[in-house]
Automatic annotation (TrEMBL):
GO molecular function, one term: protein arginine N5-methyltransferase activity
Highest taxon listed in the record's lineage: Eukaryota
Protein role: S-adenosyl-L-methionine-dependent protein-arginine N-methyltransferase that methylates the delta-nitrogen atom of arginine residues to form N5-methylarginine (type IV) in target proteins. Monomethylates ribosomal protein L12.
Location of the RMT2 domain: 195-431
Gene3D superfamilies linked: Ankyrin repeat-containing domain (1.25.40.20), Vaccinia Virus protein VP39 (3.40.50.150)
GO cellular component: cytoplasm; nucleus
Protein name: Arginine N-methyltransferase 2
Bias (Low complexity): 167-195
Keyword Calcium: no
KW rRNA processing (keyword) present: no
Lineage: Eukaryota, Fungi, Dikarya, Ascomycota, Pezizomycotina
E.C. designation(s): 2.1.1.-
Compartment list: Cytoplasm; Nucleus
Primary location group: cytoplasm
Length: 431
């Protein structure tokens, strides 16, 4: 009997959400959660509130009836009221702990539904909630580190967007490149799936790589890097090294795509940090260690950069860079944030660059690329974190082909990109 009552309460909550009945929700949520799910569809109250706004297009566009007789179509007053009520409902659900990126059984978040239905205001509300949640997680993570009495902090590794947040309304943020839902082109795993241990950095660095001319796969068939990224790397190199004679640092060699392009710009110096033994072996075979002006640092950037800061080159000049690029594997977004917050500010020349107005910093922007709402959320998050660290950021859109239809993901455990547009970041010191 208790189970029936529970099921009934879930139905009542979902119905109140779909009816945009905030008063009814207020009473129901006193003794229940804003994150209940329909056992058949996986809808949460957020899903229900947004999906209820889908228009019935079977009758075609409605005509305005408030005096206009020229046949112009306009959104009827009833529709405006419906969307206003939906927005109030969505806001109320977030105030009561609704999770912004819970998945239904159709592999859609509430934001995915809002985007599909063209509900821009509701989409913005979901996106803003996602940003708040991610920023909160980021701050909580910082406080945990500050309060940790252990000699060594716990590893903050793994590279996936976790669709089952343990903090109210949030997920763990993904990083720049990974074989995970942070960049997945196929449906994300169920909300209850935990981080894939094969994508943690210790496992990755200890495992063997399958290195082909156009792909690198790890021992679990996760894609480390693929040649479809070439247009992205080409444009990044053009923006970071617009003229010969500049100094560049690249974190993560991979297939060497961007390092090859950096070489085409005839840099004055070219430093590369690479951690995986198999990639380093490949670099040695290709003669990277003997290239003029190239310095290869073997190891994790976390271990290399402390030694590089304040160091001097063979001419006695402090080692600084006009351009820096960051593209690592098996690290979370927090690693990227630490990189530009703690290290870029120390090794990027504020008087460098083509015109002496400061060096530039770029990174592979694959955060949240399994779905548009996550990508949009993490764009705002990184903008805020970069601003706090003292950087302006400019975005340039690059269209990406349908990688699924071209067979790009054949043999790959989990594709890491699904979107039509890549947003390429270029960062400079503020001012």
């Amino acid at each position: 009997m208790e189970e029936i009552e529970t099921d009934t309460q879930v139905d009542e909550i979902l119905l109140a959400a779909s009816n945009h009945d905030v008063s009814r929700l207020r009473n129901l949520l006193r003794n229940s959660s804003a994150n209940v799910q329909d056992p058949e569809t996986g809808f949460t109250p957020l899903h229900s509130a947004i999906a209820a706004c889908e228009e019935d297009t079977s009758e075609g566009p409605k005509l305005q009836t408030n005096g206009n007789t020229n046949g112009e179509t306009a959104e009827p007053t009833g529709r405006e009221k419906e969307l206003e009520a939906a927005a109030k409902t969505v806001k109320y659900l977030f105030l009561n702990g609704a999770i912004w990126n819970d998945l239904d059984f159709n592999n859609e978040t509430p934001g995915c539904i809002a985007l599909r239905l063209g509900l821009n205001e509701l989409y913005e509300l979901v996106m803003d909630a996602g940003v708040r949640a991610e920023m909160l997680l980021s701050r909580l993570d910082e406080y945990q580190i500050l309060g940790d009495n252990d000699d060594e902090e716990d590893d903050d590794e793994g590279f996936e967007i976790i669709e089952d947040p343990t903090t109210e309304g949030a997920t763990a943020a993904p990083t720049t490149e990974a074989p995970s839902d942070a960049q997945a082109a196929t449906p994300a795993p169920p909300a209850q799936e935990s981080t894939d241990p094969s994508t943690t950095q210790p496992v990755y660095l200890a495992g063997e790589l399958d290195i082909a001319p156009d792909t690198i796969l790890d021992s679990s068939a996760n894609a480390v890097m693929m040649s479809w990224e070439t247009p992205i790397m080409k444009r990044s190199a053009e923006l970071l090294l617009p003229t010969p004679g500049l100094r560049v640092l690249n974190i993560g060699h991979g297939l060497g795509i961007i390092d090859d392009m950096f070489q085409e710009s005839s840099p004055k110096s070219h430093h590369i940090i690479e951690a995986h033994p198999d990639v380093l072996a490949q670099m040695k075979q290709k003669g990277w260690m003997e290239k003029k002006g190239v310095v290869v640092h073997e190891g994790r950037w976390q271990d290399v950069l402390p030694k590089l800061v304040g160091a001097r080159d063979e001419d006695g000049e402090e080692i600084l860079f006009d351009a820096i690029y960051f593209d690592t594997f098996a690290e979370e977004y927090s690693a990227l944030r630490d990189f530009f917050t703690e290290w870029v500010i120390q090794v990027l020349d504020p008087a460098g660059g083509k015109d002496g107005d400061g060096g530039s910093f770029g990174f592979f922007n694959g955060m949240g690329a399994d779905r548009q709402v996550c990508y949009d959320v993490y764009q705002k998050v990184v903008e805020m974190d970069l601003f706090e660290a003292g950087f302006d950021i400019e975005w340039e859109d690059i269209e990406i082909a349908d990688l699924q239809s071209t067979g790009e993901w054949t043999g790959v455990k989990r594709p890491y990109w699904s979107l039509k547009t890549y947003r390429l970041p270029t960062c400079k010191f503020i001012g």
